[in-house]
Amino acid sequence: MSKKARRRRVQQQRSSTASTLVQTEATVAPLPEKPVAPAAPDFQEYRYVITDLRRVGILAAAMFALLIALSFVIH
Fold it and tell me: What is the band of 39 on the pLDDT scale with cuts at 50, 70, 90?
């Protein structure tokens, strides 16, 4: 492949990339001046999370106690 052909192809790629960048910048909508405050979460939908966290905490404490008991048995 000659260098001239390679150079032409690279220049074509650069020009097409530059034109798409200009087009995308022109179509971007401006940001609103004031950010909208998010709505307060509805905690009724996430009640199950508290029970799951409690269950995980109990299991973690039980496993930690088991590890301590096994360490006394092994030594």
Answer: confident
Q: Nearest-5° angle of CA 28, CA 34, CA 36?
A: 95
Q: Please give the model's pTM, rounded to 2 decimal places.
A: 0.43
What sign for the dihedral angle of Cα 58, 62, 68, 71? negative
CA distance 69 to 56: 20
37 falls within a domain: no
Q: Whole domain around residue 23: which residue ranges?
A: 3-28+42-74
Q: What confidence tens digit (pLDDT) does each residue in 55-70 have?
A: 999 999 999 999 999 9
